[in-house]
Amino acid sequence: MTARDTDWDGVRLHVVTGKGGTGKTTVAAALALALAHAGRRVLLIEAEGRQGIARLFDRPPLPYEERKIAIGPGEADDGRDPGGDVYALAIDPEGALLDYLQMFYGMRSAGVALTRLGMVDFATTIAPGLSDVLVTGKATEATRRKQSGSPSGFAYDAVVLDAPPTGRIGRFLNVSAEVSGLAKVGPIRAHADTVANVIKSPQTAVHFVCTLEEMPVQETLDGIAEIRGVPGMQVGGIVINMARPAVLSQQELKTQPDLTAMAAALGAAGLYDPDSLAAALAEEISEHARLIELADREQTELESTGQPIYELPLMAEGIDLAALHKLAAELRDQGAA
Amino acid sequence: MSTQNPRLDIDRIIDDRRTRIIVCCGSGGVGKTTTAAAIGLRAAERGRQVCVLTVDPARRLAQSMGLTSLDNTPLLVDGIDDQEHGSLHAMMLDMKRTFDEIVEAHADPARAAQILANPFYQSLSSSFAGTQEYMAMEKLGQLRRSNEWDLIVVDTPPSRSALDFLDAPERLGRFLDGRLIRVLTAPVKAGRPFGRVLNAGLSVMTGALTKLLGAQVLRDAQTFITAFDTMFGGFRERAEATYKLLQAPGTSFLVIATPEPDALREASYFVERLDEERMPLAGLILNRVHSLTGSGAGGARLSAARSLAAAETLEAIPNGDAATASSAGYSVTAAALRLHAERMNLGERERRVAGSFMSTHPAVPVIEVPALPDDVHDLTGLRRVGEAFASIDSS
After folding, report:
1. Gap from A128 CA to chain B (nearest CA, Å)
2. Per-residue confidence at B327, pLDDT binned at 50, 70, 90?
3. Nearest chain A CA: its distance from B296 CA (Å)
4. CB-CB neighbors (< 8 A) of B183 in chain A
5. Domain for residue B225, yes or no?
6. Which residues are A311's β-sheet partners?
7. How many CA within 13 A on the CB side of residue A263?
8. Which helix (H) or strand (E) element contains residue B176?
9. A315 found inside a domain
10. Inter-chain CB proximity B214 and A21 less than 8 Å
């Protein structure tokens, strides 16, 4: 273990949500990588069967099975840090149901028969909260799982859950409320209560991924309010994804660019037709200034929540493994992991 | 930028009186709702009698159309330009209410009340994953049959996959009409006409289900199915009828995507699926493109590499060397060049991503809509989006 404190030291289950299009899966993967250091084992779970994790790590589709997919970075300034391991699991309700039946009743074969007849669809249909309970159940089971011989006593030092989007996160996590209407007593209810005990504890934090645009920020604020409204649930950090680089100072953004000086500079740099280029660049600066102004306004909104905020840069080249490692390093540097 | 794909001509589609339904689909977060509203507004201002149906629970359409609330019935949108005698209505789907209305329309009051109070019905009508899609289609069918509008623009439900819109209604129909639910919800009696083996298998399964869900849930489902069954013909037939509406001439599908790999992958699936189902694809709207074809077009000829090189040159000139005024000009210019390089890189990446979609689907008409710095709040904003559809590259 490194001695360095992070913002989420007591947290073992990191739930990552965000509006569609904000890069939720990417951030979840980067967070898992960031957490996987000093020999730690991290499990990255995908809750909504899109195989986004497999694509990010450039792997074939993941089965319903915990598999090692990446090695976390060691500390650059500490040669003794061997890095850690990231495992991945893609959960689908069907697999989770079979797992559940096996684990609690030893009824795997009945489960397989159920699947073949489309009964899983049936069961999750007549009890819509059921599939959420099964998915969160699997995540909390992995979080609680013990393993003798591991330094922490747990099979995984941290679990990162790539959860459903912000709009559905409250319902997804508030499992006991969700099934209470349907299953008042009985095994699934008891299961939901166990799940809730983990989710509504300081071991779990819900992180929000968002971009500095109006709708994602509004959804983030709504989501945070929703999570805060459930006793015991903990809001984690806000990750501002695809942040624009601050290449110009506030002062430079506010002042009208001096076209003559710019043209002179462009000429000095050896560029052809500096005058029209200067005009074009000035136009780009003013567009950029407008974006920054809007982004600043949204950032203030996010800051008003008082939650820790992390910023990840836009990866203009797209997201590959190298980019994921860069994002992970950012998260580590900023204290998120 | 230049592609060999034909250009998607939205105005031709909305001006064609034979176009009666436009379905906007795509994965979440690509701007479907705004696009649907913008198309609706543009069509209305070009003389159509338009109704925009949105299924998005975020009430965004309501905001952008200046309505404080959207009802389960279409409301007239004020403030449009009606010189061409068009009109615009907008409504937001309330799936539970739509479901309730079907029940109330088809059952006598006592039976309807019984169904509406059933816990199984309540969860089915408010949270089953396919209900929203089913009810969206149902509502679309109702609006179309009412003949009050000559163009209906639908925004599909937010789901992880665009295909859900096509698949979910069928799934709900199949589920409710399925033999499985009938067999399972029927009380197990001795001497039923099942084979012994099936019977044994069934009891294992009902056992598993009872363990999982509790007996009460199964009983509620059974009561519901019995009450519902006698009420009206199959759910599946109903879903199929609306599905046919989508295959009929007069329906146009628009696929919306941002120039991101995930969004375009979904778009690709959807395009292929429409083709399989013989549903008419009008084209792809590539939304929020960061290109340099707009106001800053003059900079487009300066590549990212040359821009960065120039920035480095300027940064390498020692500060004390030049007069203070020009050195300040150097640093701003260097920053502007770096900004420009970022922009070119992003644009380049988007073109690469979009290019791979287009080379796989060379016949799909495409239009690019530039990224707007501000979110759309009002009709003016929507109108601006609509104008972006129409702007014709003079090249």
Report:
1. 6
2. low
3. 5
4. none
5. no
6. A240
7. 10
8. helix B164-177
9. yes
10. no
Same domain for B87 and B17? Answer: yes
Distance CA B309, CA B341 (A): 10
Give the per-residue pLDDT at B284.
96
CB B52 within 8 A of CB B24: no
What pLDDT digit, counting tens, does each position of B116-140 carry? 988 778 877 876 667 788 888 888 8
Cβ atoms B65, B47 nearer than 8 A: no
Pair (B259, B314) in one structural domain: no
Residues B345 and B255 in one domain: no
B376: nearest CA partner in chain A: A214
User: Is the CB of A190 inside 8 Å of chain B's CB atoms?
Assistant: no
**Can you spell out the DSSP letters for B292-323?**
SSSGGGGGGGS-HHHHHHHHHHHHHS-GGGS-
Q: What is the mean pLDDT of each run of 10 residues along chain A (337 residues)?
A: 75 94 93 92 89 90 91 66 88 82 73 68 67 89 92 94 90 76 65 90 97 90 94 96 83 84 91 91 88 91 97 86 94 94
| Interacting residues of A247 by C-beta distance below 8 A, sequence separation 6+ | B335, B338, B339, B342
Contacts B209 to A, Cβ<8 Å: 114, 119, 122-123
Judgement on whether residues B286 and B374 belong to the same structural domain of the protein: yes
Query: Tokens 């495992």 belong to which residue?
Result: A87
CATH number, domain of B18, equals 3.40.50.300
Residues B120 and B141 in one domain: yes
**B317 part of a folded domain:** yes
3-class secondary-structure state, position A241: strand
Are residues B335 and B245 both part of a single domain? no
* A256 domain-assigned: no
In angstroms, the Cα distances linking A311 to A33, A239, A245, A315, B310 are 16, 6, 10, 12, 28
Dihedral of the CA atoms A314, A316, A321, A324 (nearest 10)? -10
A106 touches chain B (CB under 8 A): no
Contact with chain B for residue A257, Cβ under 8 A: yes
Residue A267 lies in a domain: no
* Dihedrals phi, psi of B230, to nearest 5 degrees: -75, -10
- B287 and B368 share a domain? yes
- The total domain count for chain B is 2
Return residues 49-108 of B near A (CB < 8 Å).
57-58, 60
Indicate the number of domains in chain A.
Answer: 1
Identify the domain containing residue A75 by its residue range: 13-246+298-332
Residue among A148, A164, A142, A151 at smallest CA distance from A42: A142
A247 at the B interface (CB within 8 A)? Answer: yes
Residue of B nearest to A274 (CA): B299
Q: Residue for token digits 């809509």?
A: B369
CB B93 within 8 A of CB B53: yes
Q: B246 and B347, same structural domain?
A: no
Domain span including residue B285: 10-166+239-293+354-390
Terminal Cα-to-Cα distance of chain A (whole angstroms)? 12
In this prediction the ipTM stands at: 0.76
The 3 state secondary structure assigned to B206-235 is: HHHHHHHHCHHHHHHHHHHHHHHHCCCCCH
Q: Give chain B positions within 8 Å (CB) of A183.
A: 213-214, 216-217
Residue among A125, A268, A282 whose CB faces B128 most closely: A125
Question: Which of A286, A145, A298 lies closest to A220 in space, CA to CA?
Answer: A298
In a domain, A252, yes or no: no
Q: What is the pTM of this model?
A: 0.83
Residue B95 has pLDDT above 80, yes or no: yes
CATH assignment of the domain containing A230: 3.40.50.300
